[in-house]
Design a protein that fits this description.
With 93 residues, this protein is of the alpha+beta class. It has one domain. It is built from three helices and two strands; from the N terminus they run ββααα. Strands 1-2 form a two-stranded antiparallel sheet. The model has no long low-confidence stretch (mean pLDDT 84).
């Protein structure tokens, strides 16, 4: 098994330290850019009480972009990613 690469990621102005497989770094950084760009878009277009509102909007948007039933691997991957994000948010709050 490859050595995990420790990286710092930023979601909604919060920094998280995670360990990833080096081959996944580009995918993760691309996803982070999309997520943070969407947060900015939602902040611009919608009123919210705090950053958690915008993160929740992005999670809903992200989860509805594709039909997981069409791709079982995507369903598992998205579910795991959402669980990890939820855990990170719970720990941060």
């Amino acid at each position: 098994m490859a050595e995990l690469l420790p990286i710092n990621i930023v979601i909604a102005d919060r920094t998280y330290r995670i360990r990833i497989d080096p081959k996944d770094e580009g995918t993760i950084r691309g996803a982070l850019k999309i997520i943070n760009d969407k947060i900015i878009e939602f902040k611009t277009n919608f009123s919210g009480k705090d950053m958690q509102d915008y993160v929740a909007m992005v999670v809903i948007w992200y989860a509805t972009q594709t039909d997981p039933k069409d791709n079982p691997l995507l369903e598992k991957t998205v579910g795991e990613a959402l669980q990890k994000m939820e855990l990170l948010l719970d720990n941060a709050l």
